[in-house]
Amino acid sequence: MTNEKLRTLLGGNAAFHYTPGVPDDAPLLEEGVVDSFGMIALVMLIEEQFGIRIMPEDATQERFRSIGSIASYIEAKQNEHPGH
Amino acid sequence: MNILAIDHVQFALPDPMASAALLTRCGYALDFQEPDFNTETRSFYRGVAKSMAYLHRGTSRIEVITCTGIAGRTRYVPMFGGTACPDGLENLPNEKSLDGVIVRARHADRSAIFWQFLGFKPVMPDRFAFPPNMLSMPLNVSLDRNPPQQDADVMADDPGCASVALITRDIHADLAALDQAGYPASEATRFRINGRHVTICFVTGPSSELVELVEFGRT
Fold first, then answer.
1. What is the chain B residue with the closest CA to A63?
2. pTM value?
3. Cβ–Cβ of A56/B218 closer than 8 Å?
4. What is the pLDDT of residues A52-78, one digit of tens each?
């Protein structure tokens, strides 16, 4: 569910270079789906769309490496504050 | 505050394109340049047309822009590879990255509170750093408690290491918070650069150190 919403978000914004079929574990920066400016936009869009607050120290390469790792992070954050 | 990361350090220089060329010889890569940008009147730039260039070396990012004001006013001494470079980009150490700034802090205790208000954390006495993350340029901010005598007022295009730019999620909310805390700021200005919408403003710290807030558009 979170993965699909992330894909919709990536596919629906000109800041990203998403094409359908990008695997969940594909590294977004290395694959060129998101560049460094796009990553800033992605962080802000995730906050808006998923109702979470991403602390600066949470924005690590490990957490934001792929659609799968971002989705896991979002779900963990949402579980900290159920109902969002 | 809504600060996410440190974006870059800005230098105001007589010939930014020549300075960009110098930086590329020292290992920085040119990301983009814009001649004669920012021509409309803005309080922080005296309304004079500017040229600018944006460069990076790894995660270290520098913006150079045309200077207008009086030399010797800026509050920052840049550090490359941990070494202070009081001459700015003159005599730049080869193959070193900008990784710190020293604030000539007339009001060091109040400046320490200011930097922490922006989200920086103390890492040593009189030294602060923003929480490391993948969006941020690593940069130590150190306070010099015994600076030389200085003029009170500085502007963003005074020659030298002029400002530290921070990325914010919400520039208007941050301006309100800064105003409430008593830190003066310029108006927020929205424009387009390198194909992207950005909104920027400048905040003045207690020792007249300038901090630029940058909000990037989502598309």
1. B134
2. 0.90
3. no
4. 999 999 999 999 999 999 999 999 999
Residues 76-105 of B with CB under 8 A from A: none
- CB–CB of B78/B99 below 8 Å? no
Q: Of residues B23 and B46, which shows the higher confidence score?
A: B23
Interchain contact, A56 vs B216, CB within 8 Å: no
Point out the least confidently predicted range of A35-39, A79-83, B163-167: A79-83
What ipTM is given for this predicted complex?
0.81
- CA separation for the pair B161, B64 (Å, rounded): 9
B115-124 residue pLDDT tens = 999 999 999 9
Contact B134 A37 (CB under 8 A): no
Minimum-distance CB partner of A43 among B4, B119, B130: B4
Q: Residue A54 contacts by C-beta under 8 Å, 6 or more apart in sequence?
A: A43, A46, A47, A77, B4
